[in-house]
Specification:
The chain is mainly α and 85 residues long. The protein is 47% helix and 0% strand. The protein has four helices and no strands. It starts with a helix and ends with a helix.
Length: 85
Amino acid sequence: MGFLRRLLGGPHEEVDAPSSPDSPPAPAVTESDERERERLVVREEHERLDELARRQLRYADYSWQPPAQGGERRADDAEGDAERG
């Protein structure tokens, strides 16, 4: 994690500095750090994808799919055999 922070220019932690036993431990990730990381991920994703791929991802939930063919009953259904026999 420290490597990524140094690479991306995030806040640095002093590994060699001992903490006193009376001080509370620092939280691993604060909410502002998490929001900044999310912004960075969205920005990198935006730069990685072209306009067509972004549009396809944006409208994927609204795409039309044809109905399943052949109805609900399948050849290996046990109830279909009971109705015939």
